[in-house]
């Protein structure tokens, strides 16, 4: 029987969803680089042939730790779905002579390398500069057109984003982004393989989006993600996911599958994603490519990743299109046939729609809630104002325990200040937009007030 080493770290699809799907394709040995959610840990013992935590080992080099554990269990493949472990797993797989993202994996993780590769290929993207010091940021600020966005080169989940309107903002933005990256590392949301990754940044011009020219219906954000996979160096698109408008500065609030764009628009979006992915030279990996949509058909590639989309993107695809990406990718790494779609699937191919909503303590316009509240999943499910044909659930492992105070939204910390993650299924994408819009407005009424924390946020 084949054996897979599953490397768990924070981020990516919920491990409670992914691990059983890998276990259905192969014997699984679990290497946990971060703590498993409590309710998943008990299940893991039954699903896996072995479970080892990083703290149980004496290895300091992450690549060698992964490679050593893979040798011990006789792994035929090493898989991770976490952004923060992608590079280390790719390098360990190379050492072992196994399929993986390949030597270019870092180009799909370090935004400085990624953007430089695209610049060489003439791929449309915002003007940018790589930044490592406050002095370099000041120099770049003088060269680029405002407003600017400062972001960490190795970040995920919109953390450490700071908008710079002018020279007076530079120092505060620099200090705040560095502080957020340090805090993210403490929480386990940081690159696991590259030392000092929290010190690397880029600053870029903010391009203007125009969602209304692209989507069939209102309420959409001005960018999409192209979900796909690279098979032996060949990009295979799967589908498009859309978004609701972000919360300032650029924190994602909700993702919807499929994205309600027309066939012609989707074809052009997918072609740009293909160019972006192929420019990086990846070998075998999932891909998640974000593209900003502007007026008059303009597009800019924002970033790509050598892994599948995080949060509930992968479960949404399975629900809507019937594709188990985790199982298919496991088969691919093991050298088995995987029946990837011959083209990017469209809304016409979908059976309904699905979306995931990040619960943040802000209203629909991005203004902070006037009162503090406690997270309570039962209240959300019971009282959510969703349509009669829609089904809402709460993703436990991606949500705070019931009774926990909802964090005050911090624009710089992004998704680090989320309280919960909700999953919705509906008849079509526009229904998901409608239901999530109503839920965002209703949450301060649904959730109990946190009297211990005072009245105002």
TrEMBL record:
<keyword id="KW-0436">Ligase</keyword>
<dbReference type="Pfam" id="PF13535">
    <property type="entry name" value="ATP-grasp_4"/>
</dbReference>
<dbReference type="InterPro" id="IPR011761">
    <property type="entry name" value="ATP-grasp"/>
</dbReference>
<protein>
    <submittedName>
        <fullName>L-amino acid ligase</fullName>
    </submittedName>
</protein>
<dbReference type="GO" id="GO:0016874">
    <property type="term" value="F:ligase activity"/>
</dbReference>
<dbReference type="GO" id="GO:0046872">
    <property type="term" value="F:metal ion binding"/>
</dbReference>
<feature type="domain" description="ATP-grasp">
    <location>
        <begin position="115"/>
        <end position="334"/>
    </location>
</feature>
<dbReference type="GO" id="GO:0005524">
    <property type="term" value="F:ATP binding"/>
</dbReference>
<keyword id="KW-0067">ATP-binding</keyword>
<keyword id="KW-0547">Nucleotide-binding</keyword>
<dbReference type="InterPro" id="IPR052032">
    <property type="entry name" value="ATP-dep_AA_Ligase"/>
</dbReference>
């Amino acid at each position: 029987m084949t054996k897979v080493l599953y490397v768990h770290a924070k981020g990516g699809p919920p491990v409670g969803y992914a691990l059983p799907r890998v276990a259905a394709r192969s014997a699984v040995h679990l290497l946990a680089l971060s703590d498993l959610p409590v309710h998943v840990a008990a299940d893991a013992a039954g699903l896996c042939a072995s479970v080892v935590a990083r703290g149980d080992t004496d290895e300091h080099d992450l690549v060698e730790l992964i490679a050593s554990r893979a040798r011990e269990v006789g792994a035929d493949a090493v898989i991770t779905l976490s952004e923060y472990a992608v590079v280390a797993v790719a390098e360990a797989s190379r050492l072992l002579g196994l399929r993986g993202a390949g030597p270019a994996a870092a180009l799909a993780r370090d935004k400085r390398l990624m953007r430089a590769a695209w610049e060489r290929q003439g791929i449309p993207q915002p003007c940018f500069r790589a930044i490592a010091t406050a002095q370099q940021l000041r120099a770049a600020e003088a060269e680029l057109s405002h407003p600017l966005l400062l972001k960490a080169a190795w970040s995920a989940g919109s953390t450490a984003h700071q908008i710079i309107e002018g020279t007076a903002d530079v120092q505060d933005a620099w200090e705040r982004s560095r502080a957020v990256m340090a805090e993210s590392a403490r929480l386990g949301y940081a690159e696991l393989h590259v030392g000092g990754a929290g010190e690397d940044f880029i600053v870029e011009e903010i391009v203007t989006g125009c969602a209304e020219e692209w989507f069939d219906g209102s309420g959409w954000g001005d960018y999409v993600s192209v979900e796909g996979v690279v098979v032996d160096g060949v990009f295979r698109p799967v589908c498009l996911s859309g978004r609701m408008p972000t919360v300032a500065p650029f924190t994602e609030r909700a993702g919807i599958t499929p994205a309600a764009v027309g066939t012609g628009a989707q074809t052009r979006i997918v072609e740009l994603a293909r160019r972006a992915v192929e420019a990086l030279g990846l070998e075998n990996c999932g891909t998640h490519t974000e593209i900003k949509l502007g007026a008059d058909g303009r597009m800019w590639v924002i970033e790509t990743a050598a892994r599948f989309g995080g949060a509930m993107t992968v479960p949404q695809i399975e629900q809507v299109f019937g594709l188990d990406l985790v199982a298919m990718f496991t088969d691919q790494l093991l050298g088995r046939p995987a029946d990837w779609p011959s083209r990017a699937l469209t809304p016409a191919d979908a059976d309904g729609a699905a979306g995931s909503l990040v619960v943040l303590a802000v209203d629909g316009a991005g203004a902070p809630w006037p009162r503090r509240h406690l997270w309570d999943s039962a209240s959300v499910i019971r009282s959510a104002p969703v349509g009669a044909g829609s089904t809402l659930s709460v993703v436990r492992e991606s949500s705070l325990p019931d009774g926990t105070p909802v964090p005050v939204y911090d624009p710089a910390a992004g998704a680090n200040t989320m309280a919960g993650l909700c999953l919705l299924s509906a008849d079509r994408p526009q229904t998901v937009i409608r239901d999530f819009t109503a839920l965002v407005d209703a949450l301060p009424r649904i959730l109990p007030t946190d009297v211990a924390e005072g009245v105002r946020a």
